[in-house]
Amino acid sequence: MQHFSIWSLLRNSMSYHEGWERQWRSPEPKREYDAVVIGAAGHGLATAYYMAKEHGMRNIAVVERGWLGGGNTARNTTIVRSNYLWDESTALYEKAMVLWEGLSQDLNYNVMFSQRGVMNLGHTLQDMRDLERRVNANRLNGVDAEVVTPEQIKEMIPFINLNTRYPVLGASLQRRAGVARHDAVAWGYARAADALGVDIIQNCEVQDYLWSGDRIVGVKTNRGDIGAGKVGLAAAGSTTLLTQKAHLQVPIENYMLQAYVTEAIKPVVNHVVVWSAAYFYVSQSDKGGLVYGGHLDKHSSWAQRGNLGNVVEVQQDLVSAIPFTSRLRLRRHWGGLNDMTPDSSPFICQTSVPGLYLNAGWCYGGFKATPGSGWAMAHTVAQDRPHALNAAFSLDRFHTGHLIDEHGAAAVAH
Q1: Distance CA 192, CA 185 (A)
Q2: pLDDT (tens digit per residue) in 51-75
Q3: pTM for this predicted structure
Q4: Fold of the domain built from segment(s) 118-175+254-340
């Protein structure tokens, strides 16, 4: 694998940058692998990479029905944070945060992780009580968090009006949090996994499973049958379509989440800022556009275009929060399928179907969890047992009564 550095950049500039190698291969699928991962986006690619790097598995394929990184990894607002309320969630997302902090060096690929800080504004006394509870819980779990005053907020975010429709009484702040470049994350993991021998097979749709008795032993695809000792499922919004083929019911429903970006302006939003009263969040991209979003659409859906009512509501929230944005033009907006669980927490586990492993149900938190999710899923697949970090994120938690409920905290935290 060609090493990226300032020296390789200078060296290739002498040949008009015509000497760069392809970042990953496009192999034909083999008839048999030790493991197949379904879904070549952030979670699937990270799973394959850590299986190869941490567990020595080399005979792995990642199959993708479309193009690499073209699903939810390309359809999110790229927020990275670990300030979750519940202990289980905090541990998993903090593992992801630690991996994020060294990811560019680990992959030798710039994922453009910018630790600009995530600020959650409080607008009522109850908001402030919830924020203080979260900050205290984070600190008890070793995660950086602090409460800031309106005066501190004004100093850090000069454009904000503290006395608009949603008066600002204070905020929580995680300084290590921030944003990353979504496509660079997928490309970086793909390149690094490929260098370790992982086959990444695009335009390869899984149509069914191969069975030996009650055990899954591979996948049927539009490019032929592929045998596998283990099959990992990391297909986000397509999860339920593929679990049904395995005769497995999972408590997941799909909802559309829309996102938006304005025309480019000079740097003004230096943090990720969240208005809990309106469930609205905004940051500024390196290109200058304001990237923002809000609530899920109000009904379950498989569409990826969203509805107009949500568009209007989110634009109103943007202008209420940052009045000068009324003069900006909306450049584009898009939608992605959120695979929602009843307690807003994911599944990273073995399933009751032998040979099938599940990584799904990430709700709002999929992108930020990418490194930690892949790391934990790789351990689960390779070792046939969960790591302590993901032991609680099992399918049977609804039967045992152990819910990891982030619903009550979502409006404050996102």
Answers
A1: 11
A2: 999 999 999 999 999 999 988 888 8
A3: 0.93
A4: D-Amino Acid Oxidase; Chain A, domain 2 (3.30.9)
